Amino acid sequence: MKQTIVLYPGAGVGHIVPMAELARIFLHRGYDVTMVLVPPPVESSDFGAGVVERITAANPSITFHMLRQYNEKLENFLCSIPRHRLHSLVIDMFGIDAIDVAAKLSVPVYTFVPSGASSLAVTTQVPALLANRKTGLKELRDTPLEFLGVPPIPASHLIQQLLEDPEDELCKTMARLFRRGMETRGVLVNTFESLESRAVQAFRNPLCVPGKILPPIYCVGPLIRQGASGSENVERHECLAWLDAQPKNSVVFLCFGSMGTLSLEQLKEIAVGLDRSGQRFLWVVRSPAYIDDPKRFLERLPEPDLDAVLPEGFLERTKDRGLVVKSWAPQVEVLHHPATGAFVTHCGWNSTLEGIMAGIPMLCWPLYAEQKMNKVFMTTDMGVGLEMEGYKTGFIRAEEVEARVRLVIESNKGRELKVRLAARKKEAETALEVGGSSYAAIVRFLSDVENLGKQLDE
């Protein structure tokens, strides 16, 4: 009889999608998989676009179970599975309270990190840094901070909540979250070892967190969403037909993720830069953010009125070389299209891996969460992107948009970047193949759980 692996992702596209891909791997290895979902506290644009419905439809072999009362319901659900059939519980990095449930039931529990090993190396070391401080890291501004396994990180580039006073409740909560997430039996990370080898090695160094032995790290990625273009039941998006008519490697794709919204002024500035650049472009435009009302940040935004948010005459002037899509485009299919030559990205980890798997040079425009850290890793150790310098001030001028898209499409520097991406793409593909590093990490994880079960039964 098959054993069941229970996956407990966090809310949001960036957490559910890679865990669904992890579920596919476990299914192929002969396990039953159940994903336990918790509805978000508010109806957000991130969830509101039918993300769960699309993932469920695309994965009929995965059982989905919706929880509405968190730990108590999780415990009841786990108890409904015969103990001899319950293989393990894999929780999202933000689901640390489930560790207590697993301990109560003697279920092996592991952490899943949908972001990369480099950002994990930083957040693993930050709690010790905060413990020795009387004031917040915010006052350090752009002072470079040294962490094992990664290049120097400007203090301002850490996750916002970690910059506050160490006694601030939100700061303490985030530090506790990152500290306790490393207290499970092991950590599965959505990366491949050759991409972030320095960071992976850091976890094995006793100086990473002095006085603490860290759990095994399993690099099981890249786990990215599967393209839908090959399915007969999925209607092909209109933007793909437009790309079919464009020359190879000629189009700049601009997309800022499921929650990446910009101000009205910034949207207009991008439009001016694209207009002046003369380059072909495919641009996903979402309605401007509620930047003056943080309480409304997660509200579902309406589709944008392009005539209202873009400069007068822009759509008409650029109609022969550009396409603006409202709110959403099939990013994986766009990135893999032969016409796509560059990707302007918010540096979300899923998007970063999707760009690497497509071999597309990236222009890095981080917006929130760990994205500024990702920008550092992408432009240094990984060598897969060039930064949009204006991100540091929170506003990127039309002149930089114009210059950067020309650089990556037309210049030798852009061509050199594409060569590096081709090499990274090959590394990623090799990691996933039988005998590759990520394939071996999955085998090692399953073996470790099996051996642990034998020890518990003795």
TrEMBL record:
CDD domains, alphabetized: GT1_Gtf-like
Protein family per UniProt: Belongs to the UDP-glycosyltransferase family.
InterPro entries linked: UDP-glycosyltransf_plant, UDP_glucos_trans, UDP_glycos_trans_CS
Entry EC number(s): 2.4.1.-
Protein name: Glycosyltransferase
Claim: Cell inner membrane is one of the keywords in the record: no
Molecular function GO labels: UDP-glucosyltransferase activity
Encoding gene, per UniProt annotation: gb04848
